[in-house]
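ok trying this again, last paste got cut off
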Amino acid sequence: MIKGKKICTLLLCSVMSVSLLGGCKNDKQVSKDPNNTGSEERVKLTFCMSQTGWGGEAVDPELMKEVERIIEEKTNTDLTIIAPPQSSYNDKLNTLLTSDIPDIFAVRKAMDTLQVMAARGYTRSMDDLIKTTPEITSLVDPKYLDYLTVDGKLHAVPMYVPLSKVIWLRKDVMDECGVNLSQTPTTEEFYNEMKKMVGKGVIPFTFPKFLDNLPFFFNPFGAYYGIGVDENGKFYDGFNTPEAKEALSYVAKLYAEGIWDQEFITNENAIIREKLFSGKAASTLDYFNRYIYYINESEKVNAGTEFVPVYELVGPRGDRGNLNEAIQDVLCISSKTKHPEKAMEVIKYYFYTMEGVKLRCLGVEGKHFTIEDGRIKATEKAANSGYKSDVNSFLLYYPKIDNYGFKWDETTERLLPKQMEYVEEANKHLGSKYLVPGGKSALYDKNLSAYKKKIDEISSKIILGTTTVEKGYEEYEKFWKSIKGDEMLEQLNK
């Protein structure tokens, strides 16, 4: 990835095979710090995170090296960075975990995967480390640390603030079609108003193929998309309830009547975003911090308009809540590391200090960007390697930065107050999110992947109209029996 014997080259990390991974193996020895006048010795650590996580998403090896150098200086470490492409990150990490676990590594969809990783012995408990790290505990709500516990012990810390999604609507299409929606409409109001756009040459609502976004439409009906927790604290199958069937019937109606994107089953996230900012679609479901993004992107393609958020839908019985992803990406420390305190120091600096977050989001001044007439500008090398200097990135991190030391472009400066207003409001409408602990039910640990795949499959069939709700759930009941679902719940509720 990066020049020098201690860094794997970017090419290696992009195409590495199992045999080549040995070349990224961590040297656990310590070496004297040539710049340190004291007796402290530098330690060597491996750090695995996708290649877009090292300074404004620039993937040029020399620029990534500059970010690595700053982290080393600030934490007195020698780092070996392993940076696979995002598209193959999980595969590369899984290979590493079965061979030579990195001292620090990022984990995606942590509320599903962390439990399994901890149960397999890949992660180290961080309870002792978090007690001496007020920089983290003062910022992260304890309930979000609770999501990352396994058998009562903390095994990760969040990489980002809790993530949620809202519906973003184009105001020009709303005005043209006479759509009048509040920011917390009822499900009936949403249907009636969105129906006005059908047949008007625009997709009223576009949606991605990733059906783990369905909770936005389950929450208004009091349903839960997965294994949930009831009012008595007991685990139950949230997908097989009258409320879930009601929610799927509602979404199927939106699809059947042309409100829901007819091509949703093949939509990548990039596609739904392009459809919205180009004016092909009137609305979509996306992250709470996308206001400035959509304004900028729509203006680039001469389709500029104002964008309005719908924070949540309110169901027939008053249930509500947006898509709460809670904790998605997290940082773990290897169970085999010899330097856990140093690993925590690297995490603390790069993710929980203002200086570290600026480094992660912007890179190094003079290398990734320059300040000209008080405004930030990407260098040519950075611009040619995928660099992004985006205020929206800062909204994903815990340390809130008010003074960036420069001004953004004129549009961003003008819109930032409105964006911050939307961010604060979105956090008031979070839907339900439950943690199912790993290691408590052997059946759950074994069947989690198949369960999620099946509820997505049944949901897609019902929405597309290739099966009815009744027949879809007949198929689901057979699956539930095949994985011994009732026994699985009994194990979880012991």
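PB: full thing came through this time. The chain has two domains: 10-162+327-362, 164-326+409-494.
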